[in-house]
Design goal:
By secondary structure, this protein is α/β, with parallel strands linked by helices. The chain is built from 11 helices and 20 strands. Bound molecules: zinc ion. The site of zinc ion has 6 residues, from loops.
Length: 409
């Protein structure tokens, strides 16, 4: 098989698996002196050189973030977990971002604006460099206020915005206050990173309406890379980049593989980061995988609804299991809600939710409250409490929104 830069084009599922097997074997040769993984193979009663492909991975113990952190604590630099990328690892990360851009239809005619802060957040750097690899021009929005970012987007006539879904909505709120019309801006595509949400139907719709653009999801993690990307089919399922990773979905409790289409925790093996590889990495992300071909022509598997939540984020509200993404979807369906926060109180082994709601003040709060209560009852079958938050009082997030707060009983 030809190790083309991008891998086989429109491969069959069998060709994909063969490509993964071959890359896994060459990775294992490259990292054969890695003591951390030698031990894992030893535990499975196997030598690294004996593995034939992805099927052999199932015998290996999983790798977890806390295990990596503990390993690094014993062998300094210590905490927090540092991630080392070789030039080859970095190239892989960028190649993954090229797929993110290509999937969203970004070309050399585009001008990409990355609205993240300068800092160790990896997507800021890979997003910008990845845009260059995709042939586009990129502008960094690091170290700017929201107003400066809006002016930069409009003045430079940027066509693509990269940021968290929360921040795209926040920028729209600031633009409205400044009297700036984003719908007539040149932004035609928004691509989201840093948190799930862009696959939540009502979040996606609100971003698209605010910006007059098409909204694309993407998923990634420092430890793994940009492992999923959206495509033009835009049917709410996003592609897993199986050219660069091996994906498994397991039951988080039994740790056994689940059937296709069943919700479970995503486990990822990186194929192109020999500097700091992860084999069978437990992401904590809950997904539903499907392998039927996509309308866009890609044969890569997809996850329906993007990342559905984190295995440890599940709330149990009066006996009903609810994920934050479902709550997000209901709240974002009410047009006058600007921002919200959820207080979780543990009462007799169950979670009680208090929703603090900030509105644009255009409709009476009692009406907003009624709409929320009705939606939660009808769609999630749970009762919640609602309180009004003063305009501008809730935090606005640029990165990884933390809207859920646990409070003491
Ligand atoms: Zn597709």
């Amino acid at each position: 098989m030809d190790f083309d830069y991008r891998g086989p084009q429109s491969p069959s599922r069998a060709e994909l698996r063969a490509w993964q097997d071959e890359r896994l074997r060459s990775l294992l040769v490259e990292i054969s002196t890695n003591r951390f993984y030698q031990e894992k193979f030893g535990f499975a009663g196997m030598k690294m050189s004996e593995a034939r492909g992805a099927a052999d991975l199932s015998a290996l113990p999983f790798t977890t973030k806390s295990e990596l952190a503990a390993e690094q604590f014993e062998h300094p630099p210590g905490r927090p977990l540092r991630w080392l990328d070789t030039a080859e690892d970095w190239e892989t990360f960028l190649r993954c971002w090229v797929e993110v851009y290509r999937g969203a239809g970004v070309t050399e005619n585009d001008l990409v604006f990355c609205a993240f802060s300068f800092g160790p957040y990896v997507s800021h750097w890979t997003g910008i460099e990845g845009a260059r690899h995709a042939g586009a021009l990129a502008i960094s929005g690091g170290g700017m206020s929201s107003e400066q970012r809006l002016r930069a987007i409009l003045d430079n006539r940027c066509t693509v915005l990269v940021c968290t879904p929360t921040y795209a909505l926040h920028l729209a709120e600031v633009a409205a206050r400044l009297g700036l019309d984003l719908r007539s801006s040149d932004i035609r595509v928004t691509i989201h990173a840093g948190e799930p949400g862009a696959s939540v139907p009502n979040v996606k719709r609100r971003i698209e309406e605010a910006w007059g653009a098409r909204c694309f999801d993407h998923a990634g993690a420092t430890e793994v890379g940009a492992w999923a990307f959206d495509c033009q089919a835009a049917d709410g399922a996003i592609h897993l980049n199986e050219l660069e990773f091996i994906f498994e979905v397991i039951d988080p409790k039994t740790c056994g593989a689940v059937d296709e289409g069943t919700r479970g925790e995503l486990v990822i093996t990186t194929l192109g980061r020999p500097g700091m590889p992860v084999l069978r990495y437990r992401t904590g992300d809950l997904v539903e995988m499907a392998t039927e071909p996509c309308e866009c022509g890609r044969t890569l598997a997809r996850i329906k609804g993007g990342v559905l939540g984190r295995a440890d984020d599940m709330l149990s509200v009066r006996g009903v299991n609810v994920y934050p993404s479902a709550i997000d979807d209901l709240i974002r369906a009410v047009p006058s809600i600007v921002e919200y926060e959820v207080e979780i109180r543990r009462v007799s082994e169950m979670d009680d939710l208090l929703l603090k709601i900030e509105t644009d003040g255009l409709s009476p709060f009692a009406e907003v409250e009624r709409a929320i209560l009705a939606a939660f009852r009808a769609q999630l079958n749970i009762r919640v409490s609602v309180a009004q938050a003063t305009a501008g009082s809730l935090p606005r997030y640029e990165f990884k929104a933390r809207r859920y707060k646990r409070v003491a009983e």
